[in-house]
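input
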Amino acid sequence: MKIKALIFTFFISGLLSGQVSFGSKVSKRELGINERLRVDFTMNKDGDDFEPPGFENFNVVGGPSQSINNSWVNGVRSFSKTYSYFLAPKKRGQFTIGQATIKIDGEVYKTLPVKISVSAAIDKPKDPNDPNYIASEKIHLVAEVSNANPYLNEAITVVYKLYVAQGVGVRNSREIDKPRYSDFWSQNIDVEGLGAQQGTYKGEDYLFVVLRKTVLYPQKTGKLNIEPLSLDVTVEVPSNRRDVFGRSFMSNVNRRVSAGNRTISVKPLPEKDKPESFSGAVGSFDFKLTTNKKELKASESFEVKLEVSGKGNLKLFRLPRLVLPSALEVYEPEHSEKVTTLISGMRGRITDSYTVVPNDPGNYPIPSVSFSYFDLKTKRYKTLGSERLIIAVDSGPEGKSENIETSVDAENIITADRKQFRSFKTTADFTTISSKPFFRSILFWIMLLGPFLLIPVFMFITKNKNTRALDVAGNKIRRANRLARKYLSDAKKSLGKKEQFYNALERALHNYLKSKLHIETSDFNKEKISELLAEKNVGLSDLEGFVSVLTACEIARYTPLSSVDMQNDYEKAAHAINMLDKQLK
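output
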């Protein structure tokens, strides 16, 4: 019996070992946008022509790495081969990792698709054994909120700062997830340059750069969420290796940093003493009503302006409505805004301009108009009122007024026998126009034959335009060439202004490489560039010269430089482009 059982065991093992398995395995199916994902494709028999899926919604930050396990246990061979990839999600959402394929013994095998859920950035525990631990301790992205407990429609500011500790550097950064302000009116404030400043983070000295400034006006009360800003940052950190002078070699680490979620508690405006004329204005304002005329003739028009100026949510409320006597013909107001959004909020003025036409003579009152707002300094409502004005309308173009009785009593006007259309002209003056016959004149033949003569020209232009439009690669090259020349010119104009100069110089170098090497921005790193230029048989000295200019642009953000240094870097960049242009076809 034992012999039969042993033979049966070997028989089953042989059948199982003959079956081919090929599958995929992921480290997790749910992750934050600041996390990494590992994907393993494993087979129990060696094969050829392995094809991974496209990974369209992920960046491949590691791999493919290959591992093979081959062992014998009790005379039974066990074999496995694994291809591993490390992925970083590009954005949030529900994604599918497609099928990988491989050919084993002439048969094609495929893995099953895997669904992955990517959420907003999450807080990850610190692991001192993680090789990225130094970078995680030395670089921080912080969202500073000016007021976490504002009133409804009160301006708050969010400033995103990237803190970098001494001894490490940032080569480049890229936004991978922008914050969304679904319950706020928002506007970004332009940040001029990325100049490094001295600051402190948790009591320690840091350098920081301001990446983004945003002004927010909450549009609802309660607890509102500000989603985090997430960046993909390449950090230079010191390694354990040192040169002959004892200085540490720097190694590059990709790090994803997030500003974290922020919760804003928005207070409602008080209901006590709220005026009826209140329409949502919050801030500090002045109000006035003006007219361009106080005396005019009937059928002439005049203009009434309602204007609110000051600081507050100027774009987020309506001006009070102007109500005039029925004897005045009033047109819909023309709204205009001269508002600037600063880091502290909106400033400026908004205006409603009414065009008014009196049809009969008389004295017409412009009644007082009230405007109410909530004053953030006193935490109370304030109401401003305009002065009551009188518009004197004299007789119109006819010289006198017949059967007109006008009575001005407070706000009411009674008029009789109005001539509503007195301002319209009802007679026409005709003049004789003499001219030469148009038929068979020079202009006649030009207009008749001109369109036929232009048809070949239009066909030629259209053909060239369509050919050029279909040349996608050529258009990219031409656009990149133009941008390279433009930015190199911009860099020369910005000599002496460090941030502007090196930003323009770096863009010029990148766009030049786009046109010559046909690569995208996501592929830009010095190792990749060096490899591609070497494949193009570029001389070593010229290659090193070009890469050295790229390095100078990267370290310039954190290094004080003079105008002489900038002039030297500009000349090096121009020389490097010139030398490469002679060798790249």
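quick obs: Helices lie at 2-18, 133-138, 442-470, 472-493, 498-517, 526-535, 540-555, 563-583.
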